[in-house]
Design a protein that fits this description.
4 helices; globular
Length: 174
């Protein structure tokens, strides 16, 4: 899925969800079987999920390279600290904020969104949180489907629902 975003000043760029370009292997990554988080950017302020690995990390690094302020979220604080240090050392013009949260929990997804709004007003939201729990239906643990739905679908719903009114009010979304 591709959406072209035209920032207030500067060149337009594309935002990709579900697919990401893997520079190392020169191919498009179509399946991510890892937890994803959120990343929030300012100057352009963008929110994306999975800051500490995979597509989310690639998106965070790309925005950091452009000097945007980042608001990162992941379940593990250690991974966030490491990524924050990596970004700060490679892109000192980019300021990094982070918060450890579990986006599969409704209250944490909403709290993260409100935390971001307490700092900045977002321009871009990239929902990228996801998990794939392998197994067969017959052997699946009770609650596994609900866990995947909470992470892959409802986290995006609650974060979007919390951030979107502000974005619409400022003309950043429709």
């Amino acid at each position: 899925i591709v959406k072209t975003y035209k920032p207030p000043v500067g060149d337009e760029f594309n935002i990709y969800s579900l697919d990401a370009f893997d520079q190392k292997n020169n191919s498009v990554v179509r399946h991510v079987m890892a937890w994803c988080d959120f990343v929030f950017f300012m100057q352009l302020v963008a929110v994306t999920e999975t800051a500490t690995k995979g597509i989310g990390k690639a998106i965070a690094m790309a925005f950091a390279a452009q000097g945007h302020q980042l608001f990162l979220c992941a379940r593990g604080e250690e991974g966030l600290k490491k990524l924050s240090a990596e970004i700060t050392s490679q892109y000192p013009q980019s300021k990094v904020h982070y918060k450890a949260v579990d986006l599969s929990e409704k209250e944490e997804a909403i709290e993260f969104s409100r935390w971001c709004l307490s700092y900045v007003e977002p321009d871009i939201l990239i929902n990228n949180a996801g998990v794939y729990l392998m197994g067969s239906l017959i052997d699946e643990k009770d609650g596994q489907l609900e866990s995947q739905l909470n992470t892959n679908l409802l986290s995006a719903y609650y974060v979007t629902k919390t951030l979107l009114p502000d974005m619409i009010q400022r003309g950043r979304s429709e």
